[in-house]
Design goal:
By secondary structure, the protein is mainly alpha-helical. The protein has helices spanning 5-30, 34-45, 55-63, 72-89, 93-106, 111-123, 127-168. Helices cover 78% and strands 0% of the residues.
Length: 171
């Protein structure tokens, strides 16, 4: 059975809160307020409302999964990588490395998390592990570019078909 309007409204509020926490984290990071960025990303990872569970948010995402991007694991990976960057800038290398490696576990193809993890591993002297992270991030970037160019070609073909249809096949 579909959720009630109240459940949908609660899910929408949870989503707004989650996205607001991410934006707050990005702004704090840009202002070099790394502890505030860490706290904002942590709130977003916990559902945007302290220790509240993500139940309504997940229900909302399940209902709209075809229309929403990125999917929940990728969004959590993005938040973890951003919090990792904030922690690294604040001097918490262990916390930053943990966040970046967690982001990589959630989204193995997330190149930015791989690059950040590689930087942190190099910083603590684990050069072989850092090289592996850099190589995996580079491979993911190459795959993302191939997918992007394929999408561009598909969009171009669709545009051509629509234009041809509009100009040559009047009804």
């Amino acid at each position: 059975a579909p959720p009630s309007a109240a459940v949908a409204a609660e899910a929408a509020a949870a989503l707004r809160s989650l996205l607001a926490a991410r934006i707050e984290g990005n702004e704090a990071y840009a202002a070099s307020k790394f502890a505030e960025a860490d706290a904002a990303y942590s709130r977003a990872l916990l559902g945007g409302r302290g220790k509240r569970k993500l139940y309504f948010f997940l229900v909302f995402l399940e209902l709209l999964r075809c229309a929403l991007a990125p999917p929940p694991p990728a969004f959590a990976a993005l938040l973890l990588a951003n919090r990792g960057a904030a922690r690294a800038r604040a001097g918490d290398v262990a916390g930053a490395l943990s966040d970046c490696l967690s982001a990589r576990a959630l989204a193995p193809g997330y190149a930015k998390a791989a690059a950040r993890a590689g930087d942190l591993l190099a910083e603590v002297g684990l050069l072989d592990a850092a090289c592996r992270e850099y190589e995996e991030g580079l491979a993911a970037t190459k795959l993302e570019l191939k997918v992007f160019f394929f999408a561009v070609v598909v969009v171009a073909v669709v545009v051509v078909v629509v234009v041809v249809d509009l100009f040559f096949f009047h009804y």
